[in-house]
Request: fold
Amino acid sequence: MTARARRRRAFLFLSLALACGGLAASEVSSRMREVEASVGGLVPVLTAARDVPAGEELRRADVAVRELPERFAPPDALVTAQEATGLPVATPLVKGSYVTAAVFGPAAGGEAGARGPAPLRRGERAVEVSVAGGDVLAGSAPGARVDVLISTDAREGPGRTLLALEDVELLDLRAGAGAGAGVAGIEAEGAGATASGTATLRVTLRQAVYLTAAQNFAREVRLLPRPPGDRRRAGRAEVPADGL
Reply:
């Protein structure tokens, strides 16, 4: 066999190998999409990093975050260490087990729902926000999780609506806007002008500053209640007025 023939043969084998590799990669990618469609994408879930006896308060080192397919995640699983730190467990936790809302429930024989929202922890703040569309939150009890939408005016550039915060804990909700709304001689401004209720949210200090600015300068703040156990994140979402 001549050198030229050998080169052509080697080139042919290389081409076939590349084609087979491409087909294999395509098959794997297709299979992964099928599996993800069947069991859902990966979601974070909080787990116990060690055995924790009943009655002991969880510390940051006691928990770890792992990812698993959405279908297999417990509906009431916590997703961040901040949610669990400082809370006493009502039942023993075994290393590797999921940290769910149920483990902080009342002890056996207690009354369900007796435990209200946990006290504020280090770094957390409770902030009041005047919100629109309060009727949709009528069935939301303290401890419910909500997403926060903010809509701005078109006074400076096109108005827009954005998903400002996700999976925030609702501490309290009452009908009527905040101070100054509906008082004779006082015209509500900012989000208070369109508000139908006042919500108290558990947030970080930075988030509290952000929401206070929205309260004063945005046109509307609206809360979207989450179904129990839904801890998925949508990521940044924004719709400008000129994009409608």
Q: What stands out?
A: The chain has three domains: 1-38, 42-104, 124-243.
